[in-house]
Amino acid sequence: MNTSNAHLTPVTGSFNDNKKAAKNIRLDLKHHFPGTKFSVRSSLFAVNVAWMDGPTKEAVKTTLSKFTEHNSEHCFSEKFGLADRILEDRNYSKSFIESALAAIAEKHNCEGIELTADAYERGLLCNVYPKGLESLHTVSELALKHMYAATY
């Protein structure tokens, strides 16, 4: 057995089953991102994965790509399950948003601008364009997208 997959449970019967794949997806996420709490829900057409803060969406997507039919490693899918689709949904806590906004304020001249999680969530930063920047909302989105939370 491949020791890098020792934390996964082999599936029995049909491997092309979102519910079976979801069980191993939970185990794989716990193995790769131990400090982050994930919600993994299976439906007839997809497996939905949601979490707050923690790893980037790209890191989770890369980790879980082996569970989709676009995976070239067919033997893995037959052994550990195959999901029709995996939908990732990363959410941000207010404190995580505040951290990103503090980094933006430090890097750019944002004096006199209300840089708060509440302003971000209400869309109030969409029409604020400090010198040489896109809207603060866009800059915030990019910062959040690439930030890892130190939870694991």
Give a structural overview.
By secondary structure, this protein is of the alpha+beta class. Helices cover 39% and strands 11% of the residues. Helix 4 packs across helix 6. The longest helix is centred in the N-terminal third of the chain and has 15 residues. The protein is elongated and about 60 Å long. The protein starts with 17 loop residues before the first helix and ends in a 6-residue tail after the last helix.
Mean pLDDT: 88
Biggest sheet: strands side by side, in what order?
1-2-3
Count of structural domains = 2
Number of DSSP strand runs = 3
Question: What would you report as the Rg, rounded to the nearest angstrom?
Answer: 19 Å
Cα shape: elongated
Query: Based on helices, strands and strand pairing, what is the structural class?
Result: alpha+beta
The number of helices is 6
In summary, what is this structure?
With 152 residues, the protein is an alpha+beta fold. Helix content is 39%, strand content 11%. A hairpin with a 4-residue loop joins strand 1 and strand 2.
Key features?
single chain; 152 residues; alpha+beta; 2 domains; three-stranded mixed beta sheet; 6 helices; 3 strands; 39% helix; 11% strand; Large polyvalent protein associated domain-containing protein; LPD29
